[in-house]
Design goal:
Blueprint: H1 3-21, H2 29-44, H3 49-73, H4 79-93, H5 96-111, H6 115-121, H7 135-182, H8 194-218, H9 222-232, H10 241-252, E1 256-262, E2 265-272, H11 283-328
Antiparallel strand pairs: 1-2
Helix pairs in contact: 1-4, 1-7, 1-11, 2-3, 2-7, 3-7, 4-7, 5-6, 5-7, 5-11, 7-8, 7-10, 7-11, 8-9, 8-10, 8-11, 9-10
């Protein structure tokens, strides 16, 4: 079986596995990677960019190397083994089901007025300070996190899986995890985490645009999604979260952004879809989860189709070049 079909079948099986099984409560591969990355940090940390560059290369490069070794190990095996490896890697790196589960748990608590439970669960989903938020602000934080993590935890991985197979899947997830661990602007990581944050911006760029485009296609308000994306995305401090959150805001007809707090540090961000959007309501959490699901399957279809078309173009070019050589002979 050709590599392009292996990705299409394997990624589909992996996403179905995530939908059915979700993340394991113990022994998750991403958690194991996080522990390894933390051990590398303990050995390398100095308040210098150069040390952070080494940390990023060791951890992300190590994840990619594991993917390369795994792909080589099944290269000569039956197609089912290659599909199974791709499926296992896809299931390990995507987190759509856990994202939906946490969002719905917070939404359920807010729906019955139990803000204490909602505050307790919010850190499972995002890094906001829950004690500074009321119910409406928590609902907004959940919708923003669903939008951003649809790109970070699902679509971005599919894009790099389509580009580079299993090594691409594992490397993207490693880069994204490193950014979450050391890429934020705290005093400890301002310099040490610089390389991880910049690499995450680069790696996440195509997935974020595909996520935003899929939100336009799948959302209930396509014109609103396009309008918010074009008008407001650039005002977001993140080059990748901006298009995603703006398109989700426009598609759902809500306002996102504004004032928020991370670890006691207050940020005043631009409002996304502020001209026509309304404040986020608790019911919008479920709408955001449904949109995230639709975006995921659209992105899978786009990535699989792109991989198949690229494979066809490469084979066609090879046939033409062999024909030219025979003609010259």
């Amino acid at each position: 079986m050709r590599a392009d079909r292996v990705f299409a079948y394997g990624a589909t099986v992996g996403l179905i596995g995530d939908r059915i099984l979700g993340d394991p409560r113990r022994g998750h591969p991403v958690a194991a990677f996080g522990r390894a990355a933390a051990a590398v940090e303990r050995a390398l940390w100095r308040d210098r960019r150069s040390r952070g560059v080494v940390h990023t290369l060791v951890c992300a490069g190590g994840a990619a190397a594991v993917g390369v070794l795994g792909a080589r190990a099944v290269r000569s095996r039956p197609a089912a083994a290659r599909v199974a490896l791709t499926a296992a890697a896809t299931w390990a790196v995507v987190g759509g089901t856990s994202l939906a589960r946490e969002a719905r748990a917070i939404g359920g608590a807010l729906a019955v007025g139990d803000t204490d439970v909602a505050r307790e669960r919010l850190p499972h989903l995002c890094g906001r300070d829950p004690h500074s938020l009321d119910g409406q602000q928590m609902a907004r934080a959940v919708v923003e996190s669903v939008a951003e993590n649809t790109s970070d935890a699902v679509v971005g991985a599919l894009v790099w899986g389509a580009v580079a197979g299993v090594p691409g899947l594992l490397a993207f997830r490693a880069v994204n995890t490193l950014d979450a661990m050391v890429g934020h602007k705290s005093p400890r990581y301002l310099r040490y985490g610089w390389a991880s944050a910049r690499l995450d911006d680069v790696a996440g760029w195509p997935g974020a645009r595909l996520t935003a485009l899929a939100a336009v296609v799948a959302g209930p308000d396509r014109r609103g999604a396009v309008r918010a994306w074009r008008a407001d995305a650039a005002a977001h401090p993140s080059p990748n979260a901006g298009p995603v959150e703006a398109s989700f805001a426009g598609a759902l007809g809500v306002r996102l952004g504004g004032t928020l707090s991370y670890g006691g540090r207050t940020e005043h961000r631009a409002v996304l879809n502020g001209g026509t959007g309304r404040p986020v309501e608790v019911a919008d959490i479920e709408r955001a989860v449904r949109l995230s699901r639709q975006v995921t399957w659209l992105a899978l279809g786009a990535c699989a189709a792109a991989r198949l078309l690229a494979g066809r173009a490469v084979r066609s070019r090879g046939v033409r070049s062999r024909g030219v050589r025979r003609g010259r002979g």
